[in-house]
Amino acid sequence: MVEKYFPWKKINHLTKLPIFLRTIGVPPDIINDETSTDVSVQELDNVTLSCTATGHPPPKITWRREDHELMLLKKIGGRDFYKVAPSVIVPNQLLGAPLGTDVVLECTVEAYPNTINYWVKNRGEMLLDGPKYTITEERSSYKDLMKLTIRQFSKNDIGTYNCVSTNSLGKSEGTLRLYEIKLYPSSQSAAEVNIGGE
Question: Known Pfam families for this protein (predicted)?
């Protein structure tokens, strides 16, 4: 008869065995019942948002805007403000205009603290307010509407324009393309002009 050796059979009740504990990570889970849903408030009104999450190790909660930009909280004079890197919104990225007309390009910037804004043509030349261009800004709280008016639109004005916004947290820009819309005399249609590529 062959006897098999099993070491654990020789352990008596006084022998101490090492116990190994393994920590198992549990991914974060947001508890919907204890977390804010969509909230609408008037500009400059206070709002309280809450987020409760479980997991192991305990998760760190970070707030971001819809466009995934990070928001940093800052207390100014007893009030909390979010610091937000600039985000540029361009409602019309492709604009056409007939020659000889005035053209208005617009960008909306959302940021805090306030931004430095400017316009650039064809990725090089910074545009300045003057006889050819009128540059305006309409600021309201954390939003800024940038407008560039190009007077007497000509073939030299065709191209790419960038609205650029920068603050201490970052930089953002939007791109607009401007092209010529050809006007035809009412007696001649565009189809008649383009026949045969002439």
Answer: I-set, Ig_3
Rg (CA), the chain: 31
Q: Is the pLDDT of residue 94 over 90?
A: yes
Count CA atoms within 13 Å of residue 96 on its CB side. Answer: 4
Identify any residues that bridge with 46 across adjacent strands, giving them in sequence order.
Answer: none
Tell me how far apart the alpha carbons of residues 153 and 107 are, in angstroms, rounded to a whole number.
19
Instruction: State residue 142's pLDDT score.
Output: 80
Task: Report the predicted TM-score, pTM, of the whole model to 2 decimal places.
Answer: 0.58
Let me know if 155 is exposed, middle or buried by CB neighbors in 10 A (0-12, 13-18, 19+): exposed
CATH numbers and ranges of domains, the chain = 28-36+45-84 (no CATH), 87-180 (2.60.40.10)
Retrieve residue 35's tokens.
């977390």
Q: Hey, what long-range contacts does 72-77 have (CB within 8 A, 24 or more apart)?
A: 72/169
Asked if residues 176 and 141 have their Cβ atoms less than 8 Å apart, the reply is no
Which residues does 178 contact at the CB level (< 8 Å), separation at least 6? 95, 96, 97, 103, 105, 150, 153, 157, 158, 159, 160, 161
Q: Which tens digit of pLDDT belongs to each residue from 52-92?
A: 888 888 888 777 766 666 565 555 555 555 677 899 999 99
Please, what is the Cα angle at 103 between 160 and 119, to 5 degrees? 45
